[in-house]
């Protein structure tokens, strides 16, 4: 009888341990999926109209002048890292990485790169600070325009609008935005 109780107790412990391990795995998987979904830029409009927000000032002496080419080191979108970009615009501004929940619903977007100060709805004077809450007036991705966002990072720099061809052959025109630190001189 004692052996039967002991075996039953052991079986319960093994079952509980197995279920706990499965729960952790499921939790880890759902966390990985959420991170993956929040970094998904498939809804991003890679090409743009070329229009820039009012008040945005052209850079007076950019490192990469309009018409020049540079190698992109940016990896915030699939197919852009390591490809040649043609500079179509260079502007001095404050740029932000932001996290927001799309106005169309769906999962929150974390650390979206980039939104410039001029793409915020009625912002205070630039630069804003990490953690500040803002309303977006940019339309790089579906559900972005009008979304409430939190600023993750702040950088005062030259931003570039670029044309490029992705690794898989997609032509992208007037892409907004690539920062100066995400470009390298052609070798």
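-> sequence recovered:
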């Amino acid at each position: 009888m004692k052996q039967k109780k002991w075996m039953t107790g052991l079986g319960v412990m093994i079952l509980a341990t197995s279920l706990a391990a499965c729960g952790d795995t499921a939790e880890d998987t759902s966390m990985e999926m959420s991170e993956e979904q929040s970094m998904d830029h498939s809804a991003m409009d890679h090409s743009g109209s070329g229009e820039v927000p009012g008040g945005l000032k052209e850079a007076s002496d950019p490192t990469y002048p309009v018409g020049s080419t540079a190698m992109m080191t940016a990896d915030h979108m699939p197919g852009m890292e390591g490809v040649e970009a043609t500079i179509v615009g260079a502007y001095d501004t404050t740029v932000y990485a932001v996290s927001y929940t799309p106005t169309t619903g769906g999962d929150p977007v974390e650390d979206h790169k980039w939104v410039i100060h001029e793409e915020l709805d009625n912002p205070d004077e630039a630069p804003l600070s990490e953690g500040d809450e803002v309303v977006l007036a940019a339309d790089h991705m579906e559900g972005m325009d009008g979304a409430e966002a939190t600023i993750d990072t702040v950088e005062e720099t030259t931003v570039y609008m670029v044309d490029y061809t992705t690794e898989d052959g997609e032509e992208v025109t007037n892409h907004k935005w690539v920062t100066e630190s995400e470009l390298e001189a052609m070798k």
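Residues 57-184 form a domain with the SH3 type barrels. fold (CATH 2.30.30.1210).
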